[in-house]
Design goal:
alpha/beta; seven-stranded parallel sheet; elongated
Amino acid sequence: MASKVRLFVDCPLAEGLDVPLAKEQAHYLFGVMRLDAGTVISLFNGKDGEWDAEVVEAGKKNGKLRCVVQTKPLQMPPDLWFYFAPIKKDRTDFIVEKAAEMGAAKIIPVQTEFTNSARINQERLQAHALEAAEQCGGTFVPEVMELQKLPKVLDHWDASRQLMFCDETLVGAKEALGNVPRGPWAILIGPEGGFSEAERERLKRQPYAHSVSLGPRILRADTAAVAALTVWQQHLGDWE
């Protein structure tokens, strides 16, 4: 019997391997979803692709699955890092979820001069990235990094990685990516108050930075995140 349940597990996956379940996973599968022995679910671990696995032991506090067949190979995202300034809790969660769904390989919160949030819950945000991968059929889970200050990020920037800098002062302009190289890239989204003049000028001086407009309207930070990822994916990513 097949199930639409899809679960991330932190262990190797291969034909015939048994996968022990943590208490929380067993409760979800057998207490919440009411699955029985013999049910087949989908597993992924971010490394070995997606596998069909059969429930061989179903208990209230533990259980065991057995890998049967690989249904998807590991699908790596483009080499795209996504930098954003944290905003209100729920909207920051939304940004992380959408970045994971839309193909960011790494997600990095940054503190700018006008960033309102001085801290993040890295563990919670990583859980949101994992949940997004579970729900969208992805086989890769992007790492959510700890909060970093923008000046420090730029001080240690690898110039071989191009940067798409979303400049809110260009609203309505025709600034787009244009003819730019492929390879490692990053996207930078500012806070609700925008970038400071000093931050903007520093970014514009960098040979690897490309200022872009996200259209004729000023977007909220969470909307800008989705718009920027869409622009990049259509121009340089794996949507082509």
